[in-house]
Amino acid sequence: MTRRIPATLVTSSRPQPYGFIVFILILLLALLASFILPSGVLAVDSQTVNYKVGAGDTLYLIAQWNHTTVETLVSLNNLTSTNLRVGQVLKVPVVKGASIGSYYLVKLGDTLFLIAQRFGTTANLLQSVNHLTSTNLLVNQKLVIPDSSLYIEHQVKAGDTLYLLGQAYSCSADKIKTLNHLGTDVLSVGQVLLVPRKASTPTSPPPQPSSSFGVLGFYTDQEGGIPSSSASTYGNIASIEWVSPFWYRLDPGDCTKIQKNSYVSDAEIKRLVSTAHSNQQKVLPIIYNFFYDQNSLTKDLVTWMISTPANRSACIANIIKLLQTYGFDGVNMDFEGVRVSDRANLAVFYRELGAQLHARGYFLSVDVPGKSNDSQWNDWTYPYDYQAIGQAADQVVLMMYNEHGYKGSGPGAVSSIPYNRANLKFALTKIAPQKIAVAVPVFGFDFNLNTGESLYVSYASAMKRASTYKATPVFDSASQTPYFSYTDSTGQKHQVWFENAASLKPKLDLVKQYNLGGIALWRLGMEDPQCWPVIRDWLSGK
After folding, report:
1. Cβ atoms of residues 340 and 320 within 8 Å
2. What is the DSSP code string of 314-362?
3. Residue 231: which H helix or E strand, with range?
4. Nearest to 99 by CA among 120, 70, 130
5. Number of other CB atoms surrounding residue 268 within 10 Å
6. Strand ranges (DSSP E) for 94-156?
7. How far is the C-alpha of 343 from the C-alpha of 462, rounded, in Å?
8. Considering just the CA atoms, what is the radius of gyration of the chain in Å?
């Protein structure tokens, strides 16, 4: 094996006593080098280069180094197998842009800067393309030389992803990943990448649809004894800017596909879209990731879908196909219970989805849990990178419910004003205010103080309990929400915390105070009917 010495080797300036012998040895070594060369280029003709296979070489790597394909190498060399042996000589096509095929063998005295000057490129790009961790070079080290007529460098900016760069430079994300020997999809700001010159500068992103001040209404079908959202939606459609039906989820059999709920008919879909559009309202179907027979799929399907550019691209294509099929105006993404380890990839997915939707004039709304800090120890809220999602989406829906009501929470307000205020103060450090829609609950919970369990209730069912047990609701001034207490027929004690028109008003005032984009109601059909006069006054500026 030829011993490598540093390319920047410094020789002594002291006169050498055996100069003639050294001169003869150099000549002999030069002669020997013409017969015994390291792996790499042996000779060049006008069309091909003779390449000597070295240890670790594969057809795929040799093809990448020389900007050709495995198929071309197989054909040129009449190969019957892709297996190679050290010392084997292959013909490879001459590639414009480097004097030795598409790579260069380092010589004594070379530096990255000098090599870059020689080939009309930059030291940063050479270091990035060759995956070098330092600027130190070794004699006979093989460097890929990018062809300046075919490739240029791109310095990664905030918000860049492989998928978006592929769109900008008219190539695939996988091509950029391969060109730059990347082992991950995650990019770093300032990183230098080799990209095709076909579009010498990225195309300007299409203008994003602007967020409007208004109301998003979540629409569901009947839930047990709770009526569907249909009557409330059609009765108040003039006060609703966006309607988001709860009809679609990631397919449990294929994480890139979208599955429609079996009970939803095409006739119902067409009726909602037609009615909304005739009232100049938008329909944004929810795509969610829960309520599977196998609970682990909630996390797994999202992990699998966002883990590779191919899966993300396929899912985005299926979302766009869904919107085109039914004439939807965009989408509301509701991925909940995501793994902490998926935070970066989830942000990448939303950036890529936003870019593709905006290019087609669609609206992107993303639901995220409310939080007052970004603690990585909170595995429910940490997976959501507010800043990245805020840059990607037209609307970020902060889900402000279940301050109390989750298992083990104990009785209390579903969404108090102090809770809303704390979460908004944090969100406003990451997300533009006009993109924020505060998701307020119009439901409540009946807390059994003896068993510790809680039951999800609508405004109507809460009022029915109060009437049955002759309980009088009290408005809690600290949380700005109502509640009442009662003892059931078995002697068990209950507290019911719920929402009504009086508790909605201070939440609307917060939206106005912080100049936010609007509100979202979970969910239509569960609300106090008196909420709508309050909402209409708020929309009209009263």
Report:
1. no
2. HHHHHHHHHHHHHT--EEEEE--S--GGGHHHHHHHHHHHHHHHHHTT-
3. helix 230-235
4. 120
5. 15
6. 103-105, 142-144, 151-155
7. 38
8. 32
Residue in the structure block whose two tokens are 């106005």 = 512
E strand or H helix at 454:
strand 454-458
pLDDT digit string, tens, across residues 315-364: 999 999 999 999 999 999 999 999 999 999 999 999 999 999 998 999 99
Mean pLDDT by 10 residues, the chain (542 residues): 42 47 52 43 57 74 70 87 85 54 74 80 76 82 74 79 79 78 77 71 41 83 92 96 98 98 94 94 97 97 96 96 96 98 96 93 96 96 96 96 94 98 96 96 98 97 98 98 98 98 97 95 97 95 85
Check: CB of residue 437 under 8 Å from CB of residue 400: no
Q: Pairing between strand 282-283 and 286-288?
A: unpaired
Main-chain dihedrals φ then ψ at residue 320, nearest 5 degrees:
-60, -40
Torsions phi, psi for 313 (to 5 deg): -60, -40
Phi, psi of 446, deg, nearest 5: -95, 110
Say which DSSP state 207 is in: P
Query: Token pair for residue 106?
Result: 């380092």
Which of 121, 104, 128 lies closest to 181 in space, CA to CA? 128
β-strand partners of 476: 481
Kindly provide the b/e burial profile for residues 398-412, where b requires at least 16 CB atoms within 10 angstroms of the residue's own CB: bbbbbbbbeeeeebb
Of 319, 323, 351, residue with least CA distance to 163: 351
Determine the Cα angle at 66 with ends 60 and 67, to 5°. Answer: 85
Q: Is the dihedral of CA 296, 299, 304, 307 positive or negative?
A: negative
